[in-house]
Amino acid sequence: MARLGDEAAGKVRRAVAEVGGVPHFHRPKDGEPPGEIDPRVIFGNPSVDYIRKCASLEWVHVVSAGIDAYSKQPELIPERVILTNSSGVYGPAGGEHVLGMMLYFTRGLHYYRNAQLRGEWDRDLSHARLLAGQTLCVVGLGDLGLNVVKRARAFDMRIFGVKRNPHPVEGVERVVSPDELDEILPEVQHLAITAPLTRETRGMIDARRLALLPEGAYLYNIGRGPIVDEAALIEALRSGRLKGAGLDVFAQEPLPKDHPLWRMENVLITPHLGADTPWDHDRAADLFIENLYRFHRGEPLKNRVDPALGY
């Protein structure tokens, strides 16, 4: 069971009782078997091993939007088990986080902060640019990516998007497939990664694609670390070809203390919390409850995901 506030936990209890169930607020330890509980429904992020040991399990609603833990070996999840996620909960915070990173670099806040720490009144206006008129490419137009688009539109940016099955999206000038990404990268000053980690997206932003960006471009990753080749990113930042990077996710987490990214002045690091707030699990509970009623009535569930696809 997810960690919930008292009010959200009470709502879950009442909803479960209404559909004739019995709630168990339990967080199994690694390797712990279901025991006597043997749930039919789980709201939380159980391990694949735990799922496999639940003989009566039919549905898991995960608290996160990403399903990395389940897409690594999708064949291990029993076919009878439906998986849904909490997409829609994290988009607003993620959208604001990406825009905050973009403003941090574009308005030169990193430069002026360093001047502040030195006690220097440095009015070098070359660091204070505008987002207006610049081109943003959002890789991944799910809930998180669409929230970035919505906020970037308010800054009068030109916006491109990348989607597995491209179709017109409001506010996005051009939507392309991943295979067409190379065509638009030379026009992109800001590249935002909001996609999930899948077989197709792993290593998607490599040295070759970073070289296609115009000199002085910025990269922001709030999707998953392995989507970007970190070694190639570091080289592009050191050479000055990329002017900066805002990174919330990494290939190895926590990021090791001796990792070179920590010491780069043109890098802004946040510890994989870019789409989070203290109230996420409580908001996910509302989505779970809505789905619980659907499950009870035999209706299709919202946010159903396919572990084989990774979303």
What layout of secondary structure does this protein have?
Elements: H1 6-18, E1 41-43, H2 48-53, E2 59-61, H3 68-71, E3 82-84, H4 91-106, H5 109-118, E4 135-139, H6 143-153, E5 158-162, E6 174-176, H7 181-184, E7 190-193, H8 207-212, E8 217-221, H9 230-239, E9 242-247, E10 267-269, H10 280-297
Parallel strand pairs: 1-2, 2-3, 4-5, 4-7, 5-6, 7-8, 8-9, 9-10
Task: Describe, in plain words, how this protein is organized in 3D.
This protein has 311 residues and is α/β, with parallel strands linked by helices. The protein folds into two domains: 6-89 and 277-297, Rossmann fold (3-Layer(aba) Sandwich), CATH 3.40.50; 92-269, 3-Layer(aba) Sandwich (Rossmann fold), CATH 3.40.50.720. It contains ten helices and ten strands. It has helices at residues 6-18, 48-53, 68-71, 91-106, 109-118, 143-153, 181-184, 207-212, 230-239, 280-297, and strands spanning 41-43, 59-61, 82-84, 135-139, 158-162, 174-176, 190-193, 217-221, 242-247, 267-269. A seven-stranded parallel beta sheet has the order 6-5-4-7-8-9-10. Strands 1-2-3 form a three-stranded parallel beta sheet, with no helix packed on it. β7, α8 and β8 (217-221) form a beta-alpha-beta unit. The longest helix is centred in the C-terminal third of the chain and has 18 residues, at 280-297.
Give a brief outline of the structure.
This protein has 311 residues and is of the alpha/beta class. It has 10 helices and 10 strands. The strands form 2 sheets. Strands 6-5-4-7-8-9-10 form a 7-stranded parallel β-sheet. A 3-stranded parallel β-sheet has the order 1-2-3, with no helix packed on it.
